[in-house]
Input
Amino acid sequence: MRILLIVLFQLLLSISSFSQVAKSVVLDSVMVQAVKRGFDVNDFIDMMKSDTSFLTGFRNVRNAPHDVKGFMTVYGRKKKIIATRYRHALQVTDGNKRWIKMVEENVTGKFYNRKEEAETYTAEIFDDIFFFKDTLPVLPSSVSISSATNTNNSSNINKLKKLIFNPGAEIEGVPLIGKRLAIFDDEMVAYYDYTIVASNFKDSISCYVFSCKEKVGAGDYPVLKSLSTWFDRKLLILFTGNTDINTVACYSILM
Output
């Protein structure tokens, strides 16, 4: 009887150690079998929360020559499109310095004001990160982009960088909005549906795919409307993902 109670206590302790998110995750049939073979949902979520693959990759590639392409859509009331912009640029480097060379730009609507400045603050911050105007030094990957960019938007760049490269993490210093980004916190379970499935990326790379999507009726409270991340099953590293952001909330972050 004592042994039975000890086993039961250990089982209850193990269950209680799982986060509410881990308990809420829906698995496909392949992942159900993976769990039986030892795949741990809680550990996988912890790994995602601490993963910095996107940010590390960005910091490494920013010193090398590469193409930069960006498409932005500006919405008005009732989600009516009022402006768009497509940009294609090249980052050029001589080993010590790097700069952006514009290749193509197509604009519709009132994307810029009379001073040729972006009408939206979000576009301004994105340009400071990806389409910077100054010639910048080539720096070690450990140096943050806000330190390397000659701009008054350093604080906002850090916030946007975290939103882009570490979605799902709380952003400190943002009243009301910051905690609503923490999609892995237990209190956010009421607003999201979570899934983990097994899939092949472009029919070649075997992956674990984690997704969360706002529940029907969640309203404007969730900042991230949806998120999907693809992890290589062999290397357990994140290499691609998609994020849909509540643009009103994003604007609040960058105010």
The two ends are 62 Å apart (CA to CA). The longest helix spans residues 2-16. The first strand starts at residue 26 and ends at 27.
